[in-house]
Amino acid sequence: MVSEISDRGNVPSIPAARNTMAVLRHLASRKGPVPASALARELGLPRSSVYQLLAVMVDEGFVVHYPEDRTYGLSALVSEIGTSALRSERLSALASPLMRSLAREAPIPVVAHLAVLSGADVSYAARVQGTRAPTTVSAVGVRLPAHLTATGRAMLARLTAPQVRALYPTRASLTRRQTAGPQTLAELDRMLDSARKRGWASEIGDVTADYSSVGAAALDRNNYPTAAIGLTFRTDAVGEHWDELGAATVAAARALTGRLTGRSS
After folding, report:
1. What CA–CA distance (Å, rounded) separates 231 from 248?
2. Which of 25, 87, 134, 220 could form a disulfide with 226 if both were Cys (CB 3.0 to 4.6 A apart)?
3. Taking the domains of the chain in order of start, what are their residue ranges?
4. Beta bridge partner(s), residue 116
5. b/e per residue 191-201 (b: at least 16 CB within 10 A)
């Protein structure tokens, strides 16, 4: 069976499967959601077939339907599948040297960590502790609500507004931890806008009391936030170093972006 699949000449002709892949590739190449009619026209497929394919992909969670605009876009599940593969050895190997430098050169004791977006959560993929580093919850494999963490906010800030709203459709989506974190969607939007303008995100006691973090996102070739690099430290130790630590995560995230894409940043 492996030899048959490996041989292009023996690959079975299944139009529906190929059309599904074509739709996914087309949606991935666009910056935002697109109408089904545009998909049908640009792919040269019957409109009825495109609607049927989209209905299945929406039902399976790979595509999000935006009824208010009559458009369709990729869901976070597609990124999650791709990110899961990257997250393992390759992503950690690319990021770990950058994280070691961050932890070593930081002006205060820090923990450097690498996180990936998994739906509305972040999952920690790697961690490096500096000298006298504080004890944090960001162990490898731990998942936390993305909107509460600096790395999560950094990645959410690089998504489009419809993508963010798909993850957080209502106020009830904003899980809170010890009464910390944004209370409304408008507050979340303001928080992400601030991170977008500044280039890095922060949180102060939203995950663990007395601890704070900064983080910046690394992007793939489609400018999707593949991962984020963050630093966590005691709030009472940071003093005047906020901007310095934030800028350091931005530099590390840009370097990781270059390694992921093969392009100099």
Report:
1. 9
2. 220
3. 2-74, 79-261
4. 123
5. bbeebbebbbb
Neighbours of 23 (CB within 10 A): 24
Residue with tokens 């992400």: 192
pLDDT value at position 148? 95
Helix, strand and coil in the chain, % to nearest 5: 50, 20, 30
- Residue with tokens 């990124």, as numbered in its chain: 79
> What topology does CATH give the domain 2-74?
Arc Repressor Mutant, subunit A (1.10.10)
User: What number does CATH give the domain 79-261?
Assistant: 3.30.450.40
Q: Are strands 121-129 and 143-145 parallel, antiparallel or unpaired?
A: antiparallel
Are 53 and 26 in contact by the 8 Å Cβ rule? The answer is no
Residue 6: its pLDDT value, please? 38
Q: Do domains 2-74 and 79-261 have the same CATH topology?
A: no
Scanning the chain, the segments in alpha helix (DSSP H) are 2-6, 15-28, 36-43, 47-60, 76-87, 89-105, 150-156, 161-167, 185-198, 235-238, 242-261
